[in-house]
Amino acid sequence: MALYPLPIAKYTVAALGVLFFLVLPLSLHEYYLSIANLVWISIIGALGLNILVGYTGQVSIGHGAFMSVGAYTAANFATRLDFPWPVNLLLGGLMAAAIGAIVGIPSLRIKGLYLAIATLAGQLIIEWTINHVTFISGGVQASIEVPRPQLGTVVLNTHREMYFFLLFFVVVAIVGTMNLMRSRVGRAFVAIRDQDIAAEIIGINIFRYKLLAFAISSFYAGVTGVLYTYYFGIANYEQFQIGVSIDYLAMIIIGGLGSVLGSIFGAAFVTLLPIGIRYGMEAVSGVLFSEATVHNLIPALRLTLFGALIIVFLVLEPEGLNRLWRNIRSYFRVWPFAY
Amino acid sequence: MRKSLIALIAIVVAMAPVMPASAGHEIVIGLQCDRTGATQIVGTVLCPGFHDYIALVNSKGGVEGHKIKALEIDHEYKVPPGVEAYERHKKEGAVTMAIYGTPHIYALAAKLTEDRIPGTSPGFGSAAAADGIKYPYIFPIAATYWSQGAAAVDFVKKQLGGNLKGKKIAYLFFDNPAGREPIEVIEDIAAKEGFQLKTFAVPPPGVEMGAQVLDIAQRFRADFVIAHLFGGAPGVSIKEFKRVGYPLRKVVSFVWGAAEANIEAGGGFAAAEGYYAMQFAGVGKDYPVLNEIREMYKKQGKPEPKEMASTVFYNRGVLIAALHVEAIRNAVKDKKDGKITGEDAKKGFEKISNFTLGGLVPPLKVTPQDHEGGGLVQIWQVKGGKFEKVTDWYAAYQDVVAKHIKDHGAKK
């Protein structure tokens, strides 16, 4: 199956490429690029989690912990052995993949909610280990400062430079996931999700592919963690606690399980929505309430609105934003001659 | 083309008088808050205190005629929204940043330094950041966890008759990096003073510590307890100590277990009688600056804000705001037009000296080397339904703390 079944898809991708690689980074203020950078990082993490949860059907609440594994691996290699960032990025990803495969072992016997709890244990064990083993965490503060990534002689420290740096990995991650899902491995994942016993009968090695799914998903998580580390200039385990795992789960559920575009939509939606709501409220609420009330109101209402909007979107389309987008697209494909 | 040019000029001319050219330049402070996340009991009181002080300064004409604007953004104690808040503040031209949260100050440390904007982390964050040479744009401006640990031991020493040899001290802490940070300092002092130190970790979320407290009271039989807990945990610790019958007058808490909210969570002031609490800002309502804030509200015909009743966190908000304004005031002295940069504000912070606000702020002395300002604290005790002051501002074992700061600075 071709990557682009229709010619219009090619043009769209080209247009998006020009938009994201040229128009946006060269026209927007650094502040907006900093938001974009947060979105880029979370897209990679969401793609990774979607491979595991969406495509292979194995629930995981340990995604944040795998990020911290990547982050601390890279930070240790960067500070102790002065390795350059591409090596650290790879090592961080591989280490996370290895740990992920180990945490994934229970998936061979248990499914669904039981597996969720097993991965939750993985999250807590990893958190505890990093928190207490100073060899990994670099001291009781559990934070390791890393130097900014360098490209030749250029030190990447502005948001504009970081934008290109991160966007490169986003593109690699998206293309990688799309191709993975068209390959033998990807088909095996989907088969396991849809009916694992049937998959085994038609000759898929469940043991291998389930652990592979955990490893690949954790590799993405590890890379996300490394990118966070380089973006912030520090590895700190408090940035990868259980709440982060839940946030990523929310992203892929809102975006759409088992779709690349859904991961992108979900990551962008969860990152941008609170910011958007705040801007809206700042514009409106100043007219209605006093300043002190506004300060109390904005954060509280933002949380409520955020929750409410998620419910609205899921009720509107339980299969996520991706399905919503597909519905809109197929409506306009035949517009204005529907039936 | 010409027409539109003329129209443009006309608009500019029309707008010119509207622009507040004579009112001075507005100086922006970036304020991060947590009113909805894990530490909301702090944020919902501390941030109004911050705003009230800024409003007070503005009601008196601002700093040398320049108004101050504190732009608040809530980050739910999550790091990515904190980073976004920082960038938004930077875009709005903030010259100082009041960061809130230990993970946040870690995540923003590199950015603050690159952008040359001073950020404050009063009472939290990395203790090593007191080193102004290594972290030029980070200002703890209040006692760090190392200084708090040293001060706590000194207080215990005085309570136990001036000699700690052979005594047993328990350190009950929240098991996260912030909770473990002071251990190395307390261990050093233990070796020096010859007391027996035993640490008792409380795992997050800190609501379960029955076994630890029982151990402290009945097996270890501590002569004194130093507690370093956060959020709901201090309240639980008070209840547990009561339950096992350990006297609360033998417990001293670090600054995040020291507020009215913590005491109330522990069963109220009557139940917590005797509990010692460490403070980096004055406690109570009896300070001239608070009277001025009440006056300001009265003039507007409003009652005093309800947050003022929770004096520990409210006063800390006032303290943080006051130190930011003081830094800006120092910076504006050299730049009368008010167009100061982050670098000017940094130098302004480093000139803060003996600015006490009638006792609410400790007599800090911030220098380019020492961004902590001396690490001063007061100990207050729960007595007769309120907090009563036990000690004046003091710092202890500064040589030990200085050694740890130096060692950390030497590390990569």
Keywords:
heterodimer; A: 339 residues; mainly alpha; two-stranded antiparallel ribbon; 76% helix; B: 412 residues; alpha/beta; Rossmann fold; 7-stranded mixed β-sheet; 5-stranded parallel β-sheet; 14 helices; 12 strands; 14% strand; globular
Q: How would you describe this protein?
A:
The complex is a heterodimer of chains A (339) and B (412). Chain A is mainly α. Chain A has a domain at 7-241. Chain A has helices at 7-27, 30-55, 63-80, 85-103, 112-132, 134-137, 159-182, 184-194, 196-201, 206-232, 242-255, 260-288, 291-316, 321-333, and strands spanning 143-145, 150-151, 154-155, 234-236. In chain A, strands 1-4 form a two-stranded antiparallel ribbon. Chain A is globular. The mean pLDDT of chain A is 88. Chain B is an alpha/beta fold and 412 residues long. Chain B folds into two domains: 27-143 and 285-359, Rossmann fold, CATH 3.40.50.2300; 145-279 and 378-410, Rossmann fold (3-Layer(aba) Sandwich), CATH 3.40.50.2300. Chain B is 43% helix and 14% strand. Chain B contains 14 helices and twelve strands. A seven-stranded mixed sheet of chain B has the order 7-6-8-9-10-11-12, sandwiched between helices. In chain B, strands 2-1-3-4-5 form a five-stranded parallel sheet, with helices on both faces. The longest helix of chain B is centred in the C-terminal third of the chain and has 24 residues, at 311-334. Mean pLDDT of chain B is 89; it is low at 11-22. The A-B interface holds A 29-31, 34-35, 38, 42, 79, 131, 137, 139-143, 145, 148, 157, 159, 232-234, 236-239, 243, 271, 274-275, 278, 291-292, 295-296, 298-300, 302-303 and B 33, 35-36, 44, 47-48, 51, 72-74, 76, 78-81, 83-84, 87-88, 90-91, 102-103, 106-111, 114, 126, 128, 175-177, 180-181, 183-184, 305, 411-412.
Helix/strand order of chain B, N-terminal first: HEHEHEHEEHEHHEHEHEHEHHHEEH
What is the β-strand count of chain A?
A: 4
**Spatial shape of chain B:** globular
Q: What is the count of structural domains of chain B?
A: 2
Strand order of the largest sheet of chain A: 1-4
